[in-house]
Design goal:
By secondary structure, this protein is mainly α. Helices cover about 30% and strands about 5% of the residues.
């Protein structure tokens, strides 16, 4: 999700990383951000990695920038998140339903 609250553009990036790969993933994060963003003005606070424990709350948090007139249907408390040009939120095309169908990959039953 991309936000531009208070004139500071930032991104919330959700990704599953197996525990055994966590250190390697974290070691590469800064170079990935710098390669996309260019100059990183606050290197010490540019990346904040957290574990996710409540997927429902996380979903509501990510939806907070949605159109206020639609938010009530999803039980979301809308909050202005600044102007973002282009796509504000989405899923990687390599992970979406069409890609999984092409690869014949199906989610495991709960």
């Amino acid at each position: 999700m991309i936000e531009d609250k208070s004139g500071h553009t930032h991104v919330h990036w959700l990704v599953y990383v197996p525990a055994r790969l966590r250190k390697a993933f974290e070691a590469k994060q800064f170079s990935w951000v710098a390669s996309v963003a260019g100059t990183v003005h606050c290197p010490a606070s540019a990346i904040d990695t957290k574990n996710i424990y409540g997927p429902r709350g996380l979903g509501l948090y990510l939806l907070k920038g949605m159109e206020p007139r639609l938010a009530r249907f999803f039980h979301v408390i809308p909050k202005p998140q600044g102007i973002v040009y282009g796509k504000r939120c989405g899923i990687s095309e390599s992970l979406g339903p069409a890609a999984r169908r092409r690869a014949a990959v199906h989610p495991r039953a709960a």
